[in-house]
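User: My collaborator sent over this chain with a note saying "see what the structure looks like." That's all I know about it. Can you take a look?
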Amino acid sequence: MNKKLKPLKGLTLKELQDLFVSEGEAKFRALQVFNWMYNYKVTSFHDMNNVSLSLRNKLEDEYSLLTLSMVEKAVSSDGATVKFLFKTNSGSIIESVIIPDEKRTTLCISTQVGCPLDCKFCATGLMGYKANLSAGEIFDQYLLASKNYASPITNIVYMGMGEPLLNYDSTVKSLSIFSEELTKGISLKKITVSTSGIPERIRNLADTNLKVKLAFSLHSCFENIRSEIMPINDKYSLKSNLEAVDYFLKKTGGRVTYEYVMLEGVNDRKEDLTALIKLSRRMPAKINLIPFNSLAHMNPEGMSGRLKPSTKDRIELFADKLRDENITVMLRNTKGQDIAAACGQLAIKFGDK
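Assistant: Without extra context I'll predict from the sequence alone. Here is the result:
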């Protein structure tokens, strides 16, 4: 019978130091192993060539170094967007997406297997929720994507499958790993955590002093409409979330990004634009206007099946009016739709793989 190995990936530097000392190893060995795991991103203990052979053998015998394996890599027809399917050691499938742009290459990573929030415009919500990912599984999406993509990854967004702040401990642990000086690949300044809104956790994240950027999934400035398309709003109101975002910005500086998926007849009316302008004056903010991407690959029913994208003209009108008010606006171009890798399309039907 194969011995079940304990995961080493996902431990913070302090946790790794405490573990090594408790097992009679020198504390500096933890620094070496941390550096190999998170900076050089090795996939075998035996590649850690400045670590003693006896310790490498011990680690190989007792611990696992990789938490994920790659199942599939899909490339969009234009050759730009890349979607990865990864399998966890427990057998769950998750997705990550690389989105290249002129000035950056962004990796969108998942924090949960599925999602419990049931946002009506998001495929991940339609697949339901299965599990939280560990900090190691979150990090290994970056590791494996880096090794399977030609250009360096410059930015990370916690915006894939799941709600990061409902998997708060693993999310913060992974951010702590990225924050260490030894982890040189990505700066926290290049990492954005996106949330649908858990006010207490937004405040908790601010209190960690991890200087990440915050994106808030807004999608409507009206409580009733937001509740209709985002059921979580019934539990955590927009008002309470905006107060938490205020706290985050005062604590960390910077500005919030409002994510706004444009839905025909739902949130693209004149009154929606007026409310969005008013909200954007409340605190330093920029707005990402996102075209609604088809959920047809999920065969949705109910409201999810009835949603339609706003017209291109309507989206451009919103952008122009917002810019007239000196509000920073980004028009999110749809990329990777042909491989179901565009914003809101990530989903695995449990049991498919």
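A starting point for your reply to your collaborator: The first strand starts at residue 6 and ends at 7.
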